Amino acid sequence: MAIAMRRRINRAWGMAALAVLAAMIAGGEARAGAIVIVSGTTEQTGDPIYTYFFDVQLLANNTLQTNGFFTVYDIPGIVIPAPTTQPSIFWGASQQNTGITPLGVSPPIVDNPNIPNATWEWHGNPIVAGGSNLDLGIFTIQTTELTAPPTPTLVYVGSLDGVNASNPPGTITVMFVPEPTSILLLSPGAVFALAVYARGRRRRTAAPAA
Fold first, then answer.
1. 3-class state of residue 98 by DSSP
2. Rounded to whole angstroms, how far apart are CA atoms 101 and 111?
3. Angstrom distance (rounded) from CA 11 to CA 179
4. Rounded to the nearest 5°, which phi and psi values hold at 11?
5. pTM score
6. Residue 117 and residue 119: Cα distance in Å, rounded?
7. Which has fewest Cβ within 10 Å: 63, 85, 151, 204?
8. Secondary structure E strands in the chain
9. Any alpha helices (H) in the chain, and if so which ranges?
């Protein structure tokens, strides 16, 4: 339970800390559409298994219809079928070597037929975003065995109606978020500060009451 809680806290921290950075890296093109991935991260969830996390939003004043979807192309390290999680049972996930690409995508997407894509399709009632962006949740997909954390720049595209492209291809740079223990190992100063704090606390605890 403690490990699972730590992972959730670490994941939330990573998503929040990287959302602005990832949006800046993605650029204005990714913001031009109706479905956008505002952050992408990977985290080691096995040995040596990694999981991609995508935070997806529906932009303001748009409606996601039943069968609307988004596709992330050429995801390194996944095989078909790859385990996924979705924020709702009404999202369906699939993987394929090419597509699924909606009609009218411009410029055309260069889709490598040797690297699988992932598509998430909405099967519920239409979702309406009001005057502000609506967070659709976190979508994940797991890699096979890798020797290093994947940190690619991925292309994605969305369709609001399940047929036509609702946004031009956008890009998202996926960042690796290390475990808290790894962060401490990479930060000797943080370890020293914690040691000083612990020593001072022990002294205060041992001091006799006035």
1. coil
2. 10
3. 9
4. -65, -45
5. 0.73
6. 7
7. 204
8. 35-44, 50-58, 63-64, 69-72, 84-85, 91-96, 117-122, 127-128, 134-142, 153-159, 170-173, 175-176
9. 2-26, 180-185, 188-206
Structure-token pair, residue 172: 């998202």
Tokens of 197: 């704090």
Q: Which CATH architecture has domain 2-177?
A: Sandwich (2.60)
Residue spans of the chain under pLDDT 50: 1-6, 8-9, 12-31, 181-187, 190-210
Q: How many CA atoms lie within 13 A of 164 on its CB side?
A: 5
Instruction: Give burial (CB, 10 Å; 0-12/13-18/19+) of 50.
Output: buried
Distance CA 160, CA 34 (A): 7
Tell me the domain boundaries of the chain. Answer: 2-177, 179-210
| Total residue length of the chain | 210
Phi-psi category of residue 193: left, alpha or beta, with phi > 0 → left and psi -120 to 50 → alpha:
alpha
pLDDT tens-digit series, residues 26-82: 433 334 579 999 999 999 999 899 999 999 999 999 999 999 999 999 999 999 999
Tell me if residue 92 falls in helix, strand or coil.
strand
Phi, psi of 194 (to 5 degrees): -65, -35
